[in-house]
Design brief:
It is a multi-pass membrane protein. The protein is mainly alpha-helical. It folds into 2 domains: about 260 residues, no CATH class; about 240 residues, no CATH class. About 70% of the residues lie in helices and about 0% in strands. The chain has 27 helices and no strands. The longest helix is centred in the first third of the chain and has 29 residues. The radius of gyration is 25 Å and the shape is globular.
């Protein structure tokens, strides 16, 4: 037997976190089935009750795969590289194929355990009747196995590219969310427009990168989701795209399983101040922000921790912030323009809903990446002891770190405002709605930022804090959407409305009259909930920071 398989799989199983995950999933799946289990000893012959239970189980399994599977392969290779054991593996008699197969097998075996933890709930669901063993229950597990394979190979490929475990987790979860959500956008934009047959075919295949349409088809929810989720002819496209992308990710990773994986060629560069006068004049004329210019000292009125975070973080540097803001502004304008060209089929409300979802996805992607390592990265890298040695108070340290992440998120949100201005130009009466939407998005950002910082501060290792924070944030924002997908069957209107109060996202979509959200009354209750949760998270973060500054 391949020794790498045993080492990788047993290493995951020995982790207390893996055991806790499996036990928690088993309990959650059992509770999900019991919540909709008929109180009497009989069920209806139409199979409605069993279908409701099956939908809860299916969406819960999908969420479990999306949240948990990418975390382990994202750190598999980079941890070996950082600890120095990857060079030993490459020097061993094992071929790169055997090393890769061993590592991917260990991750996939854990993914199988995640799926097996749902078998008792699936058996109970099938025992109720009305669920086909092959075309529904069996097909659901086939889709989830293929999805686990795709996410595992994607995580391994990202892990072979990055230089730290926390970077591997951030990039992997960003790629997973991109495949899960952003792959649906091209189909959304071309639906109802005068798109050619070739463009429609391309967007249809791109949509197959997301598992959501396939799972919704199995759940019988083809008419519940938005237009980008409907019109899925069969599951063959998803299977073909998933297997093909998994093979591509695996081959790319295998091409790097040699000694070139340790090469990091970097240009030494030259500071602008050390160049000739003509070169300095040229760069000042043609560069808005010169990345190679020597930075000035920190002014007395600025928080030094905030400046330190900006200068030591890639997206905190001025040139990267400007690029990020420009990209967000261009995407916002292009999406609004493309949607406005088919405004008779879409309506301005659909355009607004799309913009809200785009902004929320940016917050979900960036907030954990920026805030989860504010405290843990200092503890992991040994910088926390240096901070404790300074005369800075815990409040100044904490405020500086939070402001560095808040400014970046604020600039990204402001960059998407041109899309709303175009909406107001199309329909001037939407001015009040846009104001309420922006307030809801502001509370969404505050909630994501405080939750990411509070959860990340509870862990010492940066990779662990980043992975756990992404799971918490994605679960926090995705859970209300899963309840909304199951509105009317199996969840009633009141339950869905209460679930949408968890985050202000539902309130923003309700205010903008996005399709499927207009019937819910969520303001101002959603703002109050976000404010209370954010305050609670700030209290946790403050206590943890104070405790760490006082610990010996």
């Amino acid at each position: 037997m391949n020794p790498v398989v045993q080492r990788e799989f047993y290493g995951i199983l020995r982790s207390p976190k893996a055991f806790a995950i499996l036990m928690a999933l088993s309990a959650i799946f059992a509770m999900a089935v019991l919540l909709r289990w008929p109180s009497s000893g009989t069920v209806d012959l139409s199979g409605t009750q069993s279908m409701e239970v099956f939908r809860i189980l299916g969406y819960g399994l999908l969420a479990g795969v999306v949240f948990l599977v990418p975390a382990f392969p994202a750190t598999s290779i980079v941890n070996e590289k950082s600890s120095g054991t990857l060079a030993l593996l490459l020097n061993s008699p094992l071929s790169p194929w055997a090393i890769y197969f061993g590592k991917i097998s260990g991750v996939l075996l854990f993914s199988v355990l995640v799926l097996l933890s749902s078998l008792p709930a699936a058996a109970a669901c099938y025992a109720m009747g009305g669920i086909d063993l092959v075309s529904q229950l069996g097909l659901l597990y086939v889709v989830l196995v293929l999805l686990s394979l795709q996410y595992a190979t994607l995580g391994m490929f990202v892990s072979s590219l990055v230089q730290s475990a926390d970077a591997g987790v951030r990039v992997t979860y960003a790629a997973v969310l991109g495949l899960f959500v952003f792959s649906l956008i091209p189909a959304l934009l071309t639906r109802g427009s005068q798109a050619t047959a070739s463009i429609s075919a391309v967007t249809s295949w791109v949509r197959n990168l997301s598992p959501l349409p396939a799972v919704m088809e199995i759940m019988g929810h083809g008419s519940v989701g938005s237009s980008g989720l409907r019109d899925v002819p069969n599951l063959t496209g998803f299977a073909v795209v998933t297997i093909a992308s998994s093979v591509v990710f695996a081959l790319l990773t295998l091409s790097r399983m040699n000694y070139r994986i340790f090469d990091r060629s970097r240009s030494q560069g030259i500071i602008t101040n050390d160049r000739t006068l003509a070169s300095r004049t040229f760069r000042r004329l043609f560069y808005l922000v010169d990345p190679q210019r020597r930075k000035a000292g920190i002014p007395w009125y600025m928080n030094p921790i905030m400046v330190k975070e900006f200068r030591s973080r890639r997206f905190g540097r001025s040139q990267w912030l400007i690029r990020l803001v420009c990209v967000c502004a261009v995407i916002s304008m292009v999406l609004t323009f493309l949607a406005a060209t088919s405004v008779t089929a879409w309506g301005v409300d659909s355009i607004g809903g799309l913009l809200v979802l785009m902004q929320v996805m940016l917050v979900v992607l960036l907030a954990p990446s920026l805030a989860s390592g504010l405290i843990s990265s200092e503890r992991d890298g040994g910088g926390w002891e240096l901070l404790r040695a300074t005369p800075l108070s815990p409040l100044k340290i904490l405020s500086g770190k939070m402001l560095s992440a808040a400014w970046t998120l604020a600039l990204v949100l402001l960059a998407t405002l041109p899309g709303y201005l175009m909406m107001i130009y199309i329909r001037p009466t939407m001015w009040l709605q846009v104001q309420l939407v922006l307030i809801s998005l502001l509370w969404t950002t505050v909630l994501a930022l405080t939750t990411s910082a509070a959860v990340g501060s509870l862990f010492r290792l940066t990779a662990v804090s980043t992975a756990v924070t992404y799971v918490v944030i994605v679960g926090l924002f995705l859970t209300p959407i899963l309840f909304w997908l199951g509105r009317d069957a199996p969840f009633g209107h009141n339950l869905v409305e209460k679930a949408l109060l968890i985050t202000p996202v539902g309130a923003a979509l309700s205010v903008i009259n996005a399709p499927g959200f207009a019937s819910y009354d969520l303001l101002p209750a959603a703002w109050y909930v976000a404010g209370i949760v954010s305050f609670f998270m700030l209290v946790i973060l403050g206590i943890q920071t104070w405790r760490l500054t006082r610990s010996v």
